[in-house]
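Internal tracking record. Fields below are filled automatically when a chain is submitted to the structure queue. Please do not edit lines marked as system-generated. If the sequence contains nonstandard residues, flag them in the REMARKS field before resubmitting.
Queue: standard
Priority: normal
Entity type: single polypeptide chain
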Amino acid sequence: MIRFSPRIIAILVATTGLSAFSLTAQAEDRAPFVNEAPPAAAPAVAAIAPADLAGVLNYCIETNLVTHGNGDAVQTALNAKTHAVPPDQHGNVDYATGTTGQFIVGNALSTITKLSAPDQGKICSLVVARAQSLI
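SYSTEM-GENERATED OUTPUT FOLLOWS
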C-alpha cells in the first residue's frame, strides 16, 4: 500500500495551481506576433525575398485583392522559379510568412493586413508587377 501525506498532496495542488495561473497571466501579457508588425510601405515591396513575395501574392489572390486571372499564372511561375512550394511538402518559412500578408525586409517584419483595402490593393498591384519581373 502506498501512503501519501495530506501535506504533500496539498503542496502539490497549491504549486501546480499557482504555476498554471502564472503561465496563463504571462501568456496574456504578450500580444500576438502579427499585431507587432508595422504596416507595409510601397517601397518595401522591391526588397521582399522572392519566396516571401510568392506568399504575399498568394495572400493577395486569396483575399481577392488580385483576381485569379491576373495572379494565378504569375504565382505558379514564381513558385516554380523560387521553389517557394517544394514538392516534398516540407514548405518554406518565407512563403508561409507571406501567405499571412506579412513579409520581412532587412530583419524587420511588415504587414499589409493593417492597411485599408484600397491600400492593400495598391501593395498587391506592386507585388504582381515585381513577381512578373522575377519570372
